[in-house]
Specification:
Number of domains: 1
Helix content: 10-25%
CATH class: Alpha Beta
Number of strands: 7
CATH superfamily: Phage tail protein-like
Distance between the termini: 19 Å
Order of helices and strands: HEHEEEHEEE
Shape: elongated
Strand content: 25-35%
CATH architecture: 2-Layer Sandwich
């Protein structure tokens, strides 16, 4: 059974796959069981870029509503560039710019609430701690003000 947040995560990954226009870049979803090997294989690919849609998280809830109801969701997209891959293609910053364009103001899928993803107003891009050796990485931060009510179990 897929959750609303997993549905959102998969929808974001699919949008990036279809719209990113960086041939050779691999888009992954964090929940994959063999994610480490997938990242390694993707970063060694022709373009040397790997885009990972991390787990969406609720940031604000409506505490008095059964379910609960998430009022704001945050989502991070991590882009990893293998510095050891020689490529003439776009690099980390180009991939981050394009990903930001593709996702900013994108309406959420119907099963995921009624808002749209927006890039964070402050610190929209950050450098993640513990980046792999021989790689650069950026985290792109998005949020959505939405009304995503989970079904009450009582």
């Amino acid at each position: 059974m897929s959750s609303a947040l997993e549905t959102l995560q998969s929808a974001v990954a699919e949008r990036l796959r279809q719209q990113l226009n960086l041939a050779g870049a691999t888009v992954l979803v964090r929940r994959a069981s063999d994610l480490d090997s997938q990242i390694e294989a993707a970063a060694e690919g022709a373009l040397g870029l790997c885009v990972i849609v991390l787990d969406p998280r609720p940031k604000r809830v409506a505490p008095a509503v059964p379910g609960p109801a998430f009022l704001e969701i945050v989502l991070t997209v991590r882009i990893i560039e293998n510095l050891l891959t020689e490529t003439e293609g776009p690099g980390l910053l180009a991939a981050a710019e394009r990903s930001s364009q593709v996702l900013h103001l994108w309406p959420l899928p119907p099963d995921c609430g009624d808002g749209a993803l927006q890039i964070m107003e402050t610190d929209p891009w950050t450098i993640p701690p513990g980046t792999l050796r021989g790689a650069n990485a950026l985290d792109l931060h998005f949020h959505a003000s939405c009304a995503l009510a989970l079904a009450a179990t009582n």
